[in-house]
Amino acid sequence: NLAWSGWGWDVKMGDFDNDSQLEITQATGFVKGRNNRWAQLQELATANDGLVAHPGWWPHVRKGDDLAGDQTMRFFARTPDGDYANLSDRLGLAVPIPTRGMAVGDSNGDGRLDLAVARQWGEPGFYLNESRTTGDFLGL
Known about the structure:
Layout: E1 8-14, E2 23-28, E3 35-36, H1 38-45, H2 49-52, E4 65-66, E5 74-78, E6 84-86, H3 88-91, E7 99-105, E8 114-119, E9 125-127
Parallel strand pairs: 3-4
Antiparallel strand pairs: 1-2, 2-5, 5-6, 7-8, 8-9
Protein name: RNA-binding protein
InterPro entries: Integrin_alpha_N
């Protein structure tokens, strides 16, 4: 489910298999570390205005703390029944490093959309679309 996939940053839609149905990519994750501090951050979400007005009372996130750092990028494709399924594991996109942004374009002129991914404190990713089926759809 796109709405519940994690701490989301960027979303791109594109017809990666050229079948006239848009696929959806989503950058997720926040800060990767060793000590899970998600519970402390959630407490802040339920805080009253008096607490929110004083940042010194907010949870202290330090070096080595983790906030949704194991969330992986998502790639959703439409299923025959009209829902969207996450295919990131099958496509090799489920790298457990927080992602921040993505760029979509045909980088080598073969008619297929490729994907570049920016990661926080990790190597960027580039995914060359090697789909065997390119379809014949042109959307204007």
